[in-house]
Amino acid sequence: MYYLNGTKGMHLTLSAKDLRTFKWYIDASFPVHPDFRSHTGGVLTMGEGGLQIISKKQKLNSQSSTEAKLIGVDDAATQILWTKLFVEAQGYPGEENIPYLDNKSSILSEENGHDSAGKQSRALNI
């Protein structure tokens, strides 16, 4: 509350520099809930500021942080696709939907499938 009271006069400026490119930053925390489920978080930006936020508990238990991040991308996929369709329905062409991940093994699994999976990822069927 101290921070909120101290920043009442500050203004938040959101801007969209490019309505054709959607940049999604997606992450997952492995396992943070009492039932050992992970949590997905994500934000959409098209310029300055976050335009859309995702924060939800994952419905599946994951065996590694890599798997939690892949589940997170899957959880965010519906919102990612909906946003593109919504902007296109407003008359703007949506050309790129870019999900950004911060986990090297998750990125390799997304790009190469099972070929880049290690011993810990052998149960995944991508």
Question: Any overview of this molecule?
Answer:
Helices cover 31% and strands 25% of the residues. The protein is an alpha+beta fold and 126 residues long. It has one domain (20-110): 2-Layer Sandwich (Nucleotidyltransferase, domain 5), CATH 3.30.420. The chain has a 4-stranded mixed beta sheet with strand order 5-3-2-6, covered by helices on one side. A two-stranded antiparallel ribbon has the order 1-4. The termini are far apart. The model is unreliable at 122-126 (pLDDT under 50).
List the helices and strands and how they pair.
Blueprint: H1 2-6, E1 15-16, E2 21-29, E3 39-45, E4 47-48, E5 52-57, H2 65-89, E6 96-100, H3 104-112
Parallel strand pairs: 2-6
Antiparallel strand pairs: 1-4, 2-3, 3-5
Helix pairs in contact: 2-3
Which assembly state applies to the chains in this document?
A: single chain
CATH superfamily membership:
Ribonuclease H-like superfamily/Ribonuclease H
CATH class: Alpha Beta
When the domains are counted, the total is 1
**Low confidence ranges:** 122-126
Biggest beta sheet attributes: 4 strands, mixed
| Percent helix range | 25-40%
Overall average residue pLDDT: 81
CATH topology: Nucleotidyltransferase, domain 5
Q: Based on DSSP secondary structure assignment, what is the total number of beta strands? A: 6
Cα end-to-end separation: 44 Å
Give the CATH architecture.
2-Layer Sandwich
**SSE string, helices as H and strands as E:** HEEEEEHEH
Determine the number of helices (DSSP H or I, runs of at least 4 residues). Answer: 3
Cα gyration radius (Å): 17 Å
Percent of residues in beta strands? Answer: 15-25%
Placed side by side, the strands forming the largest sheet appear as 5-3-2-6
Structural class: alpha+beta
Shape label: flat
